[in-house]
Design a protein that fits this description.
The protein is mostly helical and about 260 residues long. Helix content is about 70%, strand content about 0%.
Length: about 260
């Protein structure tokens, strides 16, 4: 009797599997039919192949609107572009495209943005997550703060791991609370190497930082600058989005 019950269970499970497979096959057939119909609908208005349309979906949608193509056909293009963007992991493009192309409702765009933000965070794509959080939630939101912090930490760790070896004689070793006045003195203390060390420092500053940072550093390192005595190097860079690890990786400096 026990064996018979087990056989009955096995048969029931097999029947269930067959039923589920038949349902999946039916769904696939419906999806294929819908895709074929959608493709025919688009091709009725655009002679170009869908592959060509996908290279410039926004252009073709706008062109279609100018020519009076029905929104249903344009939505097929839009949904295909979104599908491709998601598959490629280009979540920023997907959200901008959905927001700007005006096919979806504001609620649909918002919902998609929230989902894309979560996907970007899960993928540890923090730069994209920060962009999405800015657009979807705003810069005061917890989501933006979390993504921005994660991005800064990620960049700092990556830079610290990949930073190249530096020649010992050209490294400026400073305490963590060093000011720009201490930095100028450390360069002068290099003696015969001072000019070369300063040239290296300036070259790295120009290569790795924007003009505002360069101007700020140069103005603080002017000879005899009183302000240089009160501005700490780490605080200066942290206020502009750079961590201690990034300073050490991008400039010939090591903090003790």
């Amino acid at each position: 009797k026990q064996m018979q019950r087990e056989d009955n269970v096995d048969e029931s499970y097999k029947e269930y599997e067959k039923m589920m497979q038949a349902e999946e096959n039916a769904k696939a057939e419906i999806s294929n039919a819908e895709n074929k119909e959608a493709g025919m609908e688009v091709s009725a208005y655009f002679p170009e192949a869908m592959e060509e349309i996908m290279k410039r979906p926004a252009f073709f949608i706008q062109e279609g609107r100018n020519r009076g193509v029905p929104e249903e056909a344009l939505k097929v293009i839009g949904e295909k572009a979104v599908e491709n963007g998601r598959a490629d992991g280009d979540f920023s493009f997907v959200h901008r495209f959905m927001r700007n192309i005006k096919i979806w409702t504001d609620e649909e765009v918002r919902s998609a943005g929230e989902e894309l933000y979560r996907l970007a965070m899960d993928d540890k794509n923090f730069r994209t997550a920060t962009e999405l959080a800015r657009e979807v939630y705003g810069v005061s939101s917890p989501e933006f703060i979390d993504a921005e912090y994660a991005e800064s930490y990620s960049i700092g760790s990556e830079v610290a791991e990949n930073k190249p070896e530096k020649e010992e004689g050209f490294i400026l070793k400073l305490p963590k609370d060093a000011t720009f006045s201490d930095l100028s003195k450390a360069i002068d203390d290099k003696g015969d190497l001072a000019l070369e060390v300063e040239d290296i420092f300036q070259a790295e500053l120009i290569d790795n930082f924007n003009a505002d940072v360069q101007w700020g550093v140069d103005s603080l390192m002017e000879y005899g600058s009183e302000k240089a005595k009160n501005v700490k190097i780490i605080e200066f860079f942290e206020n502009r989005g750079y961590s201690k690890e990034e300073i050490e990786a991008l400039l010939p400096i090591e903090f003790e």
